[in-house]
Amino acid sequence: MALDDLKAAVPAYAKDLKLNLGSVIGNSELPQQQLWGTVLACAIASRSPRVLKELEPEARENLKPEAYEAAKAAAAVMAMNNVYYRTRHLLSDPEYGNLRAGLRMNVIGNPGVEKADFELWSLAVSAINGCGMCLDSHEQVLRKAGVDRETVQEAFKIASVLQAVGTTLDAEAVLDQA
Question: Which cysteine residues pair off into disulfide bonds (predicted)?
């Protein structure tokens, strides 16, 4: 199992990450599609080759093809949107908020899976990318769709753990080469 391989690779000083990795994925109460879509989108967003390499095969195995593609699409479109909207928010000139974005993001309106699943994956990627505007927007859509706070929290817990594991393993790979 790739999850076990990933956990085994986590160094002793990051034992908490190993335990959290097992917990947020291995003990998640999310339905399979929500869980593995979140895992795949976050593995991509983490930018860690090791995390993606280890978790992608299991995600592919646990997702229908349309959900697999939608999770990748969530990571892709949020990579763009998170930079755009985070920048717009951080600029001190509020007039940028009045300008049309002019960026294509059709997949958000027609993701090929349940809208709530895509929104959950988009929220998790936005957590990794640190875009407050996107986090608020996706959380509001999820809550209006009846998704409870515990489910939303589960998604950003997965995001936080995968990001931390990726950072740690990538740092170890560089340190091992030194």
Answer: 131-134
- Give CA 6 to chain center in angstroms: 17
Distances 14 to 21, 24, 49, 53, 166 between C-alpha atoms, Å: 11, 16, 19, 20, 12
pTM, full prediction = 0.95
User: Catalytic one among 108, 134, 147, 165?
Assistant: 134
In the chain, the domains with their CATH numbers are 31-95+111-177 (1.20.1290.10)
- Clarify whether 134 is annotated catalytic: yes
Task: Give catalytic status of residue 42 as yes or no.
Answer: no
Active-site residue, from 131, 159, 162, 169:
131
